[in-house]
Amino acid sequence: MKTVYTFVSSPNHVYPDHPERPARLDILEPRLKSFDTELIEAKPAKREEIAYIHNPKLVSALERVCKEDAPGIIDYAPTYVTKSSFDDALLAAGGVITCARAVFNGDAKDAFAIVRPPGHHAEPDRAMGFCIFNNVAIAAADALTQGLERVAIIDYDAHHGNGTQAAFLNEERVAFLSTHQYQSGFYPGTGWIEDAPHAKKRIVNVPLPAYAGDQVYEQVADRIFAPFVKSFQPQMIFISVGFDAHWSDPITMLGLSTAGYLMLARKVVALAEEYCAGKIVFVLEGGYDPMNVANGAETVFIAETGQGESEANDPSPRQEPDCESRIEEIRKWHGF
Ligand SMILES: [Zn+2]
């Protein structure tokens, strides 16, 4: 079976000087054909699928704003909309559903939904953080309606996946883990260890200091991702993958290199193989340097197909902080 992908570049969802722009995908797009993968066509999500996660009033309001008032800014992040954004967001969410169904129906080995606008900040009642609809949450909820009973989401974008956490705060069938930069003033400000005391082991936050990089993330993967997946025993894993945790991203201060991203992708693919027959769907979130997005996407395909090697050689020039006590604190809080 093949690794499949969707590509929803939303060329008309664009705003002057905004980092979340179609050009993020410009270096990646011509490289896509070089992988042993198959493109599948994204279908727009239906209103009832969006409504698995989002308040129908928000959906109607967004549609009206896009059609009548766009272009414009709808939240302070700033999140923008254009005339096409509503339809672009339906296609982005639909692209993730298309990928996920291909994997759980057994038509594909695994998948990568390369979509924008991104989704993980969008909460049930509000679009925020460059995100319109929460693509990964909608697809995970769709998997539940298709009969799955345990779905895990691991989010290693540089930012906390606050929208995904909010969507599944009280949904026992979904487990959520997020690694993110955490410090005063860093967006969105949520994602502390103790955010969800009622959901230990199921909602896991890994707040990291600036410059945490390959070595810290390897420890986090081995000592937090692994027991998280082992304890929840998911039937399918989604990865919210953002390439903004790369050390050279223009809007964040984490320290991953492309080699670090490859290590993470291989570790989560191995966890999926160990616990859920390899059923894993990566979903693009952030990443604002087009070269990092291209190199990072390549790491996903290398891990999924088991073929090729990354040629990028871009180690972080910065010293990593010691995160030993933080990792132990998180393990202790959850009883891992
Ligand atoms: Zn991000």
In short:
The protein has helices at 28-31, 47-50, 56-69, 85-104, 135-145, 162-167, 214-232, 258-276, 290-305, 324-334, and strands at 3-8, 37-39, 72-75, 79-81, 110-115, 151-155, 174-181, 203-208, 236-241, 280-284. The protein has 336 residues and is α/β, with parallel strands linked by helices. Bound molecules: zinc ion.
Description of the structure:
- The structure is a single chain.
- With 336 residues, the chain is an alpha/beta fold.
- 37% of the residues lie in helices and 15% in strands.
- An eight-stranded parallel sheet has the order 2-1-5-10-9-6-7-8, sandwiched between helices. A two-stranded antiparallel ribbon has the order 3-4.
- α4 (85-104) crosses α5, α7 (214-232) runs parallel beside α8 (258-276) and α8 runs parallel beside α9 (290-305).
- It starts with a strand and ends with a helix.
- The mean pLDDT is 97.
Largest sheet: 8 strands, parallel
Spatial gap, N to C terminus: 34 Å
The coarse silhouette is globular
Residues in helix, %: 25-40%
Taking all residues together, what is the mean pLDDT? 97
Query: What fraction of the residues are assigned to beta strands by DSSP?
Result: 15-25%
Gyration radius over CA: 18 Å
Q: Which structural class fits the helix and strand makeup?
A: alpha/beta
Ligands, deduplicated: zinc ion
Total helical segments: 10
Low-confidence stretches: none
Strand order of the largest sheet: 2-1-5-10-9-6-7-8
Number of strands: 10
- Give the topology string: H per helix, E per strand: EHEHHEEHEHEHEEHEHEHH
